């Protein structure tokens, strides 16, 4: 079968590999499409994945084979897979903090992923995809769980004013989740004009360009001089984090959904004096059913994020290079398998 294999920093190879065989408790999934995630791009740039790994954790497909001991699933079922599968045995799992599992199984990160014709996955991670939800939409369930999990974990309350820093895929999904959570206003900061326009279309109250707008002045004017209640950082760049400390209101929260790979210099004196809360979250697990329902009901628009769709055997490595540089003009790139 064809698969996108991580070979090291700056190297993705689409090549032939053996079709995996599902073991006890596993299923084999015939993949329809798979998204290129920001964490995949960071691995491409930094080498944080093991060479030889088949990448991809945002995917949807149909069950092609059911392994021994699997019940409740059959060949042909349309599914998405929770990419972070907790062990259920460690201290974090026993206390209900499943996404902090000490032995977590991460499809496309610690185990071969879904940017391939077939992928095997533990049946415990499966979620049924309703007929009214397309495979393209299904490939965006996982990133929606990331945003939904973060907003649920945050201290955002109905009537609060929020800022979303970064209008990439996670930022645009966080924007929609924040609106659903009852925020009075959602201000988005973004430098890319394509992404900024999409943020406006998806419901941002105001979109500010941090290269052109004075964020301190603008946010003060938009929040009656108080500052936003919660700032969601949805980019891996270090500058927004340091900047957010001076922008959030006293007693407010900075919530990280981006994955910073560089050290961050921050004014922790202001953190103490302002009694600020800083928190982050990795991904969703319990949120998969809710994310599927939000898409099925049309309450979150995931299709709007898809800017490009490419076949697996053409241009995947080139898209990783393009997305790693500014000005690609892309938002979410889906790799079509079938």
CATH architecture of the largest domain: Alpha-Beta Complex
Query: What's the helix-strand series?
Result: EEEHEEEHEEEHHEHEHEHEHEHEHEHE
Largest sheet: 7 strands, mixed
SSE-based structural type: alpha/beta
Note the beta-strand portion. Answer: 15-25%
Number of domains: 2
Write the layout of secondary structure elements.
Layout (H helix, E strand, L loop, with lengths): L1 E7 L2 E6 L9 E10 L2 H9 L11 E9 L11 E4 L2 E2 L5 H4 L10 E2 L11 E5 L3 E3 L6 H4 L2 H13 L7 E5 L3 H12 L4 E5 L3 H9 L4 E3 L6 H8 L7 E4 L5 H9 L5 E4 L11 H6 L3 E4 L7 H9 L9 E6 L4 H8 L8 E5 L2
Parallel strand pairs: 10-11, 10-13, 11-12, 13-14, 14-15, 16-17
Antiparallel strand pairs: 1-2, 3-4, 3-8, 3-17, 4-5, 5-9, 6-7
Helix pairs in contact: 4-5, 4-10
Q: What are the defining features of this structure?
A:
338 residues; Rossmann fold; six-stranded parallel sheet; seven-stranded mixed sheet; single chain; alpha/beta; 27% helix; Quinone Oxidoreductase, Chain A, domain 1; globular; 2 domains
Description:
The structure is a single chain. The chain has 338 residues and is an alpha/beta fold. The protein folds into 2 domains: 2-140 and 302-336, Quinone Oxidoreductase, Chain A, domain 1; 145-280, NAD(P)-binding Rossmann-like Domain (Rossmann fold), CATH 3.40.50. 27% of the residues lie in helices and 25% in strands. It contains 11 helices and 17 strands. It has helices at residues 38-46, 91-94, 135-138, 141-153, 169-180, 193-201, 215-222, 239-247, 268-273, 288-296, 316-323, and strands at 2-8, 11-16, 26-35, 58-66, 78-81, 84-85, 105-106, 118-122, 126-128, 161-165, 185-189, 206-208, 230-233, 253-256, 277-280, 306-311, 332-336. Strands 3, 4, 5, 8, 9, 16 and 17 form a 7-stranded mixed beta sheet that branches. Strands 12-11-10-13-14-15 form a 6-stranded parallel beta sheet, sandwiched between helices. The protein has a two-stranded antiparallel sheet with strand order 1-2. Helix 4 (141-153) packs across helix 10. The chain is globular and about 60 Å long. The termini are close together. The mean pLDDT is 94.
């Amino acid at each position: 079968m064809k698969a996108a294999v991580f070979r090291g920093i700056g190297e993705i190879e689409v090549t032939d590999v053996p079709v995996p065989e599902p073991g006890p408790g596993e299923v084999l999934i015939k993949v329809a499409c798979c998204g290129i995630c920001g964490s995949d791009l960071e691995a491409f740039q930094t080498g944080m994945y093991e060479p030889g790994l088949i990448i991809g954790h945002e995917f949807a497909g149909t069950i092609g084979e059911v392994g021994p001991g699997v019940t409740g699933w059959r060949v042909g079922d349309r599914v998405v897979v929770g990419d972070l599968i907790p062990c259920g045995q460690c201290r974090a799992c026993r206390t209900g903090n499943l996404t902090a599992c000490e032995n977590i199984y991460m499809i496309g990160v610690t185990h071969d992923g879904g940017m391939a014709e077939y992928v095997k996955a533990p049946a415990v991670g499966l979620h049924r995809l309703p007929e009214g939800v397309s495979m393209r939409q299904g490939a965006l369930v996982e990133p929606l769980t990331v945003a939904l999990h973060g907003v649920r974990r945050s201290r955002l309350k109905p009537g609060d004013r929020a800022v979303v820093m970064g209008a990439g895929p996670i930022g645009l999904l966080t924007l929609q989740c924040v609106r659903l959570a009852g925020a009075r206003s959602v201000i988005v900061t973004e430098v890319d004009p394509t992404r900024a326009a999409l943020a406006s279309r998806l419901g941002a109250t105001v979109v500010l360009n941090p290269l052109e707008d004075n964020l301190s002045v603008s946010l003060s004017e938009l929040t009656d001089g108080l500052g936003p209640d919660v700032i969601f950082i949805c980019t891996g760049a270090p500058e927004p984090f340091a900047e957010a400390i001076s922008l959030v209101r006293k007693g407010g929260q900075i919530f990280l959904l981006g994955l910073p790979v560089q050290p961050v210099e921050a004014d922790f004196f202001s953190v103490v004096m302002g009694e600020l809360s800083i928190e982050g979250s990795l991904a969703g697990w319990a949120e998969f059913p809710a994310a599927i329902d939000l898409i099925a009901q049309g309450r979150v628009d995931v299709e709007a994020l898809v800017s490009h769709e490419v076949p697996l055997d053409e241009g995947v490595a080139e898209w990783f290079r393009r997305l790693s540089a500014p000005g690609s003009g892309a938002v979410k790139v889906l790799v079509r398998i079938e």
